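[job 0412] stage=complex_fold ligand=adenosine monophosphate status=START
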Amino acid sequence: MKFTDLGLSDELLRAVHEAGYEEPTPIQEKAIPVVMMGRDVLGCAQTGTGKTASFTLPMIDILAAGRAKARMPRSLILEPTRELAAQVADNFEVYGKYHKLSKALLIGGSSMEEQLKVLNRGVDVLIATPGRLLDVFDRGHLLMNDVKVLVIDEADRMLDMGFIPDVEKIVSLLSPMRTTLLFSATMPKEIRRLADKFLSNPKEISVSPPASTADTIAQGLVKLKSAGRAPGAAQKVKREALRKLIRDHQDTLTNALVFCNRKRDVDVVYRSLERHGFSAARLHGDMVQSVRTDTLDKFKKNEVKILVCSDVAARGLDISTVSHVFNFDVPTHAEDYVHRIGRTGRAGRKGNSFTLMMPEEKKYLDGIERLIGKPIPVLEDGGTPPSDTSEKEEKAEEKPKRGRSRGGKPKSDAKPKSEEAPAGDTKKDSSEDNSRKKPAPKKAAGSGRKPAQKDNRKNKDDDGAFGEHTPAFLKKEVPLGKR
Ligand code: AMP
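[job 0412] stage=complex_fold status=DONE, emitting structure tokens
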């Protein structure tokens, strides 16, 4: 099928052509004609399938006729994270370049005043995260009875993040005379129930079995041997294994995402990679929005090669050319595995994903393999101890931080409660409420060296690793092109 068969306007076809798309993806082929007819859609599609265009393209044509009134958006797109909302807004720019539609973003972490100004001028498309939207509504800045098209995107993510009550409240504020499109990568019972409640006689569209992984992604599992019970020992073994994996794949690795279950580990792994000379940055929900945006930008522009992140980056982020995804931890929620590895192998490209697993994480692996319906191939040399690190480096990495107990065996691996929450508990991690949290240290992206630390471990580490083992093209200072 061709784009010209979908009933889209000439202006849209021109924009799509200029975006470099040759033919519609399966979800676009199936969803666009249905949305154009004004019918509700329940779409089950994994990330990277072209899902965003499958609703933005018909919306642009539907909204082309008519004008928005102040504070009364004509369509509403709900997204679970700010990044996704911003990305959908970018999509409207690209596809809507020959239309005169206005749009507004209502997301946490950015100035509400600015957002309200745009809203007051009248918008055709409002893209929002649920919390900020309700906040603005409760303050009386928004009327929602003119919404003709509602998109609930990444519904299963909304569910995971605890946004469903907010979504239900928002839907109750809308006129029933609307088209509703609900997209979800997986279709758990709760989402189906929501669909029954919000959608009227929807066309069900599924472009791949729920929770399947793209065939273009080569998956691998690295089974690590138990590291004993010493605090931090498992993490140390994983950090070594990660470095070994990165180096082993340097021939094909152009850039990579490293997912950790805990925000605390995002920080530790990021610092460790930096110490070992890799071009790295970090991204998690406790960082202020401007730093998150800036970091993501640097990664997209290839100014940093390795982005260590929590599940805030797992869903929907359109970084089209990620060659490798590494799971530093086996995700505790099986669906997160699908989303994480879906960051590579997008839009038909080849991708690679590797998961590090300690014996105690086996139960999570079982859940993932049940969900994706196949075993993850085990790397043959996965169990061998990584060879790249000297004893000295390991000791240095193990050293406890200032403020924690020193010397002797710590009684427990006691850490602040908030840090202990697995990233699966992502309500905290990516909701707009994070803007009120303590910002992370300013230096997020891997530019330059960090100032020396009091316990001297950095110097030892760098001496042991930088230059000797780190592939040149992954080093901080060397642009990829010079590889
Ligand atoms: P999405 O699943 O919406 O996040 O889209 C994943 C990626 O596919 C994005 O980089 C889109 O720009 C790209 N894309 C969307 N539709 C097409 C298409 N018809 N042909 C090629 N690439 C596409």
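Residues 21, 24-25, 28, 47-53, 316, 318, 320, 346-347 surround adenosine monophosphate (CB under 6 Å).
[job 0412] exit 0
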